[in-house]
Amino acid sequence: MEGVLTGVALVHLVPRLRRIRQLAENTKYFRSRLKEMGFIIYGNNDSPVVPVLLYMPAKVVAFAREMLARKIGVVVVGFPATPITEARARFCVSAAHTRDMLNQVLDCMNEVGDLLCLKFSRRKYSPQPDLCDETDFELDS
């Protein structure tokens, strides 16, 4: 009887583990791509809730409208729910999102970020972070 219960538990556990792994992969991909584009992201790196800073209250509505015009609904949050200079858009990544879906949102974010000047990060990100340590390699003359 114990073996049957273990088998039943595994049948239910394996799909859940796949979804958890897929959620972690989607979250890591989405956050890293946004950072590469120059957006400033708040929150824990492992969290599927991804707050993208918009900073200026006047850009919150413009951002939401531009994204909606591209058929992407976003949750925007501003003052008084946040400090006045920390307005943000909040994305919720899911295990059900495909890479194509994420790329579509990322492409739109890139366009809107350029249009509204929302890319505030000064950091240089590499798709291979192990190879980029921001060390200055100037040669002596």
Automatic annotation (TrEMBL):
Pfam families (alphabetical): Aminotran_1_2
Annotated keywords: Acyltransferase, Pyridoxal phosphate, Transferase
A GO molecular-function annotation: pyridoxal phosphate binding
GO cellular component, one term: membrane
Gene Ontology annotations of biological process type: ceramide biosynthetic process; sphingosine biosynthetic process
Keyword rRNA processing: no
Source superkingdom: Eukaryota
Domain Aminotransferase class I/classII large: 20-107
Family recorded in the similarity comment: Belongs to the class-II pyridoxal-phosphate-dependent aminotransferase family.
Protein name (database record): Aminotransferase class I/classII large domain-containing protein
Highest classification ranks of the organism: Eukaryota, Metazoa, Chordata, Craniata, Vertebrata
